[in-house]
Design goal:
It is a single chain. This protein is an alpha+beta fold and 168 residues long. The protein has two domains: 2-61, no CATH class; 89-165, TATA-Binding Protein. The protein is 27% helix and 35% strand. It contains three helices and nine strands. The chain has helices at residues 2-19, 27-39, 111-124, and strands at 44-49, 55-61, 67-68, 89-96, 100-107, 128-130, 137-141, 144-153, 156-165. Strands 1-2-3-4-5-9-8-7-6 form a nine-stranded antiparallel β-sheet, sandwiched between helices. α1 runs antiparallel to α2 (27-39). It starts with a helix and ends with a strand.
Length: 168
């Protein structure tokens, strides 16, 4: 697992470096070249190159259905009553057994502002906050659970949102 993560990280770094080489050809050709390069290392990547030949996005798809990248969209099927703060930039989406999701994002808002905003938005959408003793925010609604965790990350805040159906 660690070796695959390391290989994927090195591949992404190599893709970024190759993108700066300014090779000729269409954007589509450049995208295919970079995707094929990643595939040589077992990484299933979708690369988007802009009209200047610069990589504008790289999305890495895992065999389990998860994706990693930058400015990702919420997956289809993500609960409409669980919303993200406008400042939250999704960089990872992973399916959770039982129809749930784990969303990882970064934000430049403060933990206090994010916590207050998520608490208010979840309650407005009918979620009941569960006592947690200072840990992640936890909410229940109609046999579902949503937890939201905030972690300082340098000048930003890492936000982890997990949704799932309660077993039983």
């Amino acid at each position: 697992m660690t070796k695959r993560l390391y290989t994927g990280s090195v591949t992404i770094l190599a893709l970024a470096m190759l993108a700066g080489c300014g090779q000729s050809g269409s954007s589509e050709t450049r995208e295919r070249e970079l995707e094929n390069y990643a595939a040589q290392y077992g990484v299933n990547a979708d690369v988007t190159v802009d009209e200047n030949g610069e990589v504008s996005s790289v999305t890495v798809n895992s065999p389990s259905g998860g994706v990693a990248g930058s400015n990702l969209e919420l997956p289809s099927g993500f609960p409409a009553d669980v919303v993200l703060h406008p400042s939250e930039n999704i960089y990872s989406v992973t399916p959770v057994p039982g129809g749930g999701y784990s969303i990882a994002a970064l934000s430049d808002a403060s933990i206090a502002d994010l916590s207050a905003w998520h608490r208010r938005e979840m309650q407005q959408r009918g979620w009941s906050e569960q006592p947690g003793g200072g840990g992640p925010l936890a909410f229940m609604k109609n046999g579902r659970l949503a937890s939201i965790n905030f972690t300082p990350n340098g000048d930003s805040v890492a936000v982890q949102i997990m949704t799932m159906t309660i077993p039983g």
